[in-house]
Input
Amino acid sequence: MAKKIAVSDTTLSDNKCDICYESKCCRYVTQNIDKPTSMRDFDLLLWQISHKNVHIFKDSEGWYLLFLSECLHLLDDGRCGIYEKRPLICRDHSNDYCEFDVSIEEGSDLYFGSYEALDKYCRKRYKGWDKRFKKKSWQQNA
Output
């Protein structure tokens, strides 16, 4: 990774990575998940988001689990400590349109950063949300 430059010197570089002091793309992992379509699916998402640093979002490409977890190889200055040996996914990452432009939260169609936010959404989506605990409800909405 190139040496970080001062924000006032942004015209010196077309590479956003040079001015992204927070190394935004190195502070999370996303995992594409199947589109939730039933109460049971959303209940599973509630379990997942009940864990620390797990968020959920939907964008134009699909549904994702978002794990807020910093890369182990990130140096104090925001550069990659294994740049020459970094994984292919890091090498293939494009910053044409990335978190430097807009955060995942702002760029998502739906974003759930907490159990409460997802539960509120589920209550609007399903009138009988609390009835999901009954076995019959699971079978009807699976």
Notes: Residues 1-12 have pLDDT under 50 and may be disordered. The first helix runs from residue 39 to 49.
